[in-house]
Amino acid sequence: MKPRIIMLAFNTLVTKSGHKGLIMYAPTSFRKEAREKTMTRILFSFLFIATDSFMILLDNKNFMKIIGLDLAGVEKRPTGFCIMDGMNVKTFILYSDDEILHEVEHVKPEVIAIDAPLTLPKGRKSIEERTNIHLRECDRLLLKRGIKFFPITLGPMRLLTKRGIRLKKILKKKGFRVIEVYPGGAQDVLGIPRKQKGTEKLRKSLESLGIEGLKETMNDHELDAVTCAFVGKLFLEGRYEVLGSVDDGIVMPLINKR
Questions:
Q1: Contact in structure between 211 and 256 (CB atoms under 8 Å)
Q2: Would you say the pTM of this structure is higher than 0.90?
Q3: Which has the closest alpha carbon to 66: 219, 239, 234?
Q4: For residue range 160-180, what is the model confidence (pLDDT) as tens digits?
Q5: 110: phi > 0 → left, psi -120 to 50 → alpha, else beta; which?
């Protein structure tokens, strides 16, 4: 609760107490006692308001809804969709853009963390353009750190890039905050195995981070979506770094800070 709102509540309590006028005309001893009782009531009311507001803020911080999206390049292929509420997750598979948008609008998340290129390299007008510009600044930083990835202009990545950019544009127009994440790179930074090492190992490693609600039946798309959502949580908590800038870069966990 903002200070001016608290002061407004304080002043309102004083005004509505009705004691101000009575105290003025009462004996000195009575005025002192009445004033002390009034101030005690006001103090307890103030503490109640402040404590209640703090608990609301704390609850909101711990239970912010986040969506993680392991986006497929085309609608015929499965997209992993994760809803993270606090540290609890729920996942399922979606296919079409309409399905994704419907779920997003239903959840109303604080942030949507998408595993897909959401921008083009500077100097490239479109993904179809024939040019020697293939890497973004964030891609170069991944290379510098030795993190493996597929360039956005390589084969199927072209379709994924087009879809990612299109979805980001729609979601931002609807008022949602969207960030680009890379679960494989995030898993490297967090010191946990990628899906190529097996879904069971990845699931158990995600559990070791404190994530709850994971199931043995979750496939690699869902587990990568969970990783996306976890990075989204770190983003909201300020425990992240950006390779590039937030608008055209990749959000990653801070090293050794989970």
A1: no
A2: no
A3: 234
A4: 999 999 999 999 999 999 999
A5: alpha
